[in-house]
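Example noted here:
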Amino acid sequence: MTAQVSSEASHTDHLQDDILAEVRNHIGHLTLNRPAGLNAITLDMVRSLSQHLHAWADDPTVYAVVLRGAGEKAFCAGGDIRSLYDSFKNGDTLHEDFFVEEYALDLAIHHYRKPVLALMDGFVLGGGMGLVQGADLRVVTERSRLAMPEVAIGYFPDVGGSYFLPRIPGELGVYLGVTGVQVRAADALYCGLADWYLDSAKLADLDQKLDRLHWHESPLKDLQGLLAKLGVQHLPDAPLAALRPAIDHFFALPDVPSIVEQLQQVTVADSHEWALTTAALMQTRSPLAMAVTLEMLRRGRHLPLEQCFALELHLDRQWFARGDLIEGVRALIIDKDKAPRWNPATVAELDAHHVDSFFRDFELVGR
């Protein structure tokens, strides 16, 4: 296969300004284009992305897809939570439709028949992680901040988090999901949440080289060869590597109350300051969200990808009415008093039977 750059007409779709779509040199480029809102994804954006990916999957002139976010601050900071809050409060169905269609899009990326290159520059949070974790080539930069921060607003890490988080070595993924902490490039590579590191200053160079790329027999190998010339796959001094013994100990404990108690009282290796900081952080999160997350991740570790999405949807259908999300959004986004009234209010008040009730009948639903 040979490159066709100058002689090949570019096609740009301007019908949906929140998603920019363009084909250059046999590569479909999709850009999340809400930089002022950190490229938070809406239902219309989900539908536009799905439409383009579906069309390109069947287009023999498109060999690969590149995903990126507009601006320098974020690839995607997650779903447009405010619109989902308003939908529930108004008795609409937008919030229900959003999760069904968002998960279908994320699953389609996991199974996409052509290579997907995700440029994870800036914040990659929540729904942004759902878009990139199924990609074949995930690139981070020095500006990358990755997280599944849902427990901070009374929710749980969805968009396939029940699949990709517990498959991180040891208990690192459980730690990331239950606490919602952000990681940078070195930790993203160490955890297997990214494949390549590239200085952000080289992103423009990458684009130029993509436009001039000479295709051979395997588009994936061609893209890998290009990234190998510009980036690296390992960075030194990943903070989580040093914390791994402590994380593997604490986050393998039976439940959230045990984790918090031991973080406060037990020292593993040279991690006491980190442990106290982590315990304090967890006491600001939704106890119910953390407990459901812990159970979800432990179940997800043994489920295939499709069943993980089914489990998350099973939880979604209950969560707006029974979980802490509405209160979390009220406190942190609507009223901005930053004083959510979680239910239960503390980790000590968690009821294991109540936590288990969210998973009741899932086996029947999943069949």
